[in-house]
Amino acid sequence: MKNVFKLIFIGGSGFLLSGCLASERDMGTLKLQLKELNDSITVMQANQAELATKMEDLNRNLSVSSENLAQMDAQMVRLSTKLDDLSAVVRPGASSAGEVSQQPAGQNISMLPSDLFAEAKNHLDKGSYSAAVTGFKLYISKYPTGESAEQAYVYLGDAYTGLSETKPAAVAYATLLQKFPKSKLTAQARVKYARSIVPLGKTDEAKRYLASVVQEFPGTAEASQAQAELAKLN
């Protein structure tokens, strides 16, 4: 009988011992998994920090690029007005590119194209939209193919927009798109045209124009603006 109890005791102790050993192995495995998880989290946090730094650098570079583009656009506008001035003093239809119009001594053009354009732009910047409309319409009528004609149509639309006259604004932008299909201002004009026709109930057409900017001018500021406008309309 005593031998039976000894066997039971030894067998039970062995079972308990094996259970303890199994638990220790499980705990060791769990600790190892936790360590691996912590290491993975540390690596992910480091990658996120690096990504955040790269995004900040990218945003700064984009900001600088946008400023540079704005400066280039301003320089192009100034250059265009200077070319207008040169064209104004060259006799239309002259047989030679260097032949200038013959005017009486001391008689000058009353107002150069650059002056007319600059005056209208000054009114636009100051919020004198009616005067700006008058100035840009006069410029377009006098110099319909002038170097600044394309920009004048955009500014004319902007002036009408400032007056909350969406229909003539849309007409100004649409005229640019029709007369100058290869203009460098096409993307800008499409976005502004789309905005101007939404209040006129032409939402579907506006969406098409905005989508065309996203598709044809990817990576540009106008594409980003178009995406933002599409988000508002959807």
Gyration radius, rounded: 36 Å
Alpha-carbon distance between the two ends: 88 Å
Instruction: Name the structural class.
Output: mainly alpha
Number of strands: 0
- Average predicted confidence as pLDDT: 78
Secondary-structure element series: HHHHHHHH
Can you count the helices? 8
Which residues sit in consecutive blocks of at least 5 with pLDDT less than 50? 4-10, 88-109
Report on the biggest sheet. none
**Beta-strand percentage?**
under 5%
Give the overall shape. elongated
Helical residues, percent = over 70%
Question: How would you sum up this structure, described in words?
Answer:
This protein has 234 residues and is mainly alpha-helical. Helices cover 78% and strands 0% of the residues. The chain has 8 helices and no strands. The chain has helices at 2-89, 113-126, 129-142, 149-162, 166-179, 186-197, 203-216, 221-233. The N and C termini lie far apart (88 Å). Residues 4-10 and 88-109 have low confidence and may be disordered.
Write the layout of secondary structure elements.
Layout: H1 2-89, H2 113-126, H3 129-142, H4 149-162, H5 166-179, H6 186-197, H7 203-216, H8 221-233
Helix pairs in contact: 1-2, 2-3, 3-4, 4-5, 4-6, 5-6, 6-7, 6-8, 7-8
